[in-house]
Sequence to fold (34 residues):
Amino acid sequence: MQVIVRDNNVHQHLRRWKKKMNLGYRHIPIVVRR
Fold:
């Protein structure tokens, strides 16, 4: 799972993750501390 690729990539990934998090998740330990 390579999530830390670039600030821009991480931002887009978080955007999609936020949508999935809204589905049910809330606090997931996944490279969220920039």
Residues 1-34 form one domain. The chain is about 50% helix and 0% strand.
